[in-house]
Amino acid sequence: MLEEELAIRPTSETIMYPSFSRWIRSWRDLPLRYNQWNNVVRWEFKHPTPLLRNREFLWNEGHSVYSSREEANSEKNRILDIYEKTIKELLCLEGIKGRKTDSEKFAGGEATFSFEFLLPDGKSVQGPDFHHDGQNFAKAFDITFLNKDGEKEFAYQNTYALSTRMLGVMFAVHGDDKGLIVPPGLARYQVIIIPIFNDMNKKKVLNYSLKITDELNSKYRVYLDDREEYSPGWKFNNWELKGVPLRIEIGERETDASLVTLVRRDNLKKLKLVQKAFQKW
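RESULT FIELD:
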C-alpha cells in the first residue's frame, strides 16, 4: 500500500473534451489549438520494451478544434512537416510517411497518418502521428458551436503527438557496441576536448586546449575534460559511450605543432589538422 493515494491519468480526451464543450460556444471561439507536455500510463500490453514500448512514457501532444472539415484537414501537412523536420534535422533519421490502414488507425478517429521506422533487427516501429477525428469525439462529448448563420454544429477535431519513443529509435538506429551516437543537433556537448599531459607539459597543453575551447565555443557546445583523476583512455571510452559527436585529442605533439587530432563518433576515424585549417573546417 502507498502512503498516499495516487490517481493514474486516463486518456487525454476523457479529461480535456468536457472542458472543450464548455469553452466553445461560437465560431468565434475557433480554431482552438491546445498543446501540452505530459506523461502517459498504459497497461494494455504484456511485453514492454525499454523506450520503444513503455508502460509509462512522456510526450508532446496536440489537440485542435475547427469549424469545418476542410480547415481541420489543412492542419495535417503543417504538423507532419514539423515532425519530419524534427526527425531529419535533429534525430538524423529517415522514416516512411503515410496513412495507416483502417484496422491500424487511432480508435475513434477517421484517419491516422504516421511515420514508420525500420530498426536494425528488421522490425518496424511507429513514430509521430496525426489523427483526423472528424466529428466523432465532438458528438461523444457534445463539442458544438453556433456557426455564422446562428445554426448549431458539431466541431471537427485533430490529435497528434511525438513521444520519447523517438529517443529509443534514435539509439537503436545510430548506436553501436561502444554506446550511443547522438546527432550534433541534439547532443548536449557537440565537441569534447581531452588534453593529454604529464607533470612536465601540463601547463602548455592545458593552455593550448583552453585556446582551442575558446575558439570553438562561439559556434559549438564544447566541454573541456581536464579532470586529472581519470586517464585519457578512460575518458575516450566514457565519451564514446555517451555519444558525443566529435572528440578532440590534444597532447604535447599537437601543442608544439599547433595541431588538433579529431575523432568522429559515428565512424571513429581520426584526422589531424593544423590549427588554421581547423578554424575553417
